[in-house]
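This part of the workshop introduces the protein records we will be handling. A learned vocabulary of local backbone shapes supplies the integers on the structure line. Getting from the letters to the tokens is the skill we practise here. As an example, a complete record with its sequence and its structure tokens follows.
=====
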Amino acid sequence: MSRHLDNCPGLTKIRLCRSTLTEEILLNPVRCMLVAIGALGAALLPSWAIAQYPTKPVRIVVPFQPGAVPDTLARTVAERLARGLGQPVVVDNRPGAGGNIGAEIVANAPGDGYTLMLATSSHASNPSLFRKVNYDPVKDFAAITMIARIPGVLVVPANSPAQSVRELIALAKSKPGVLTFASGGNGSQAHFAGEMFKSAAGIDILHIPYKGAPEIMASLLSDQTSMGFPTLPTALPQVKAGKVRALAVTSLTRNPQLPEVPTMREAMDHGFDLNAWFGIVAPASVSPQIIARLNTEIVKILNDPEVRNKLGADGSEVVTMTPQEFAALIKTDVAVWADIVKASGVKLD
């Protein structure tokens, strides 16, 4: 049976459906008005909650170890974001599985804007690299903005006989299977840079994976490995101190912090470029209004001359994007990395 609420003045036809009933109940005018007011309040509640955001601390999950570049970037943003949001912003390190552990935590977090993630290029490469990944890097996340783009740098121990990339290639060819390259773990940017160098130069060098970028430098300083491709912020202090030698950067152009160091394309035949990007993402169900608010606050932080100078001094290039631009980049990079992983033959369990 269906009845219109014609005896409810000023209201359109309202139908109250109950899963346990087979017919609708005709409400009296007062009851009808109360139901309508309650429905209106419920409809407005999400907007009210969004307008009040945030009302408690915000967490930025960093899927890498403390002290690594992603951790440093997250803490730089978190400190200032707390001022803009008026709530504490805490960094939560969840390393493991090349970033997959932290990413899965965030993908499954409530879409209320209180859990964010510092994502890196591995966010786009991991689905192709690992045999099983329990999240979709595009569908399960909402992009907020890129923070920075950072090149790797090919470095060798200070006592290495190689003074240039070509000399390093010649040395490797004279000792096939003897020279080693360090990385921050299987599937890391440093790992892929080493594999790309190995392929482009036609040399046989052995990959030595470590827990993270700091261990790359430790291995080079102690002569345990022959070369490595750490990020520039990680290597720069030791390069400037003369403890390791920089032979080339993996960016398309030379870096202002090492203007005398050539790019890989300049330094060798069939050179390549490989930049790591870093950005902030959230669970996919976070409202567009909260995403827009976070984008505004973070871009404001990154446009602060003090922040730009601080990151630039480390060799980082500050880059900001709209949520739409960053989402498009991630989607494109997933396809690009699928090709790189396939060509490299690297596959992880």
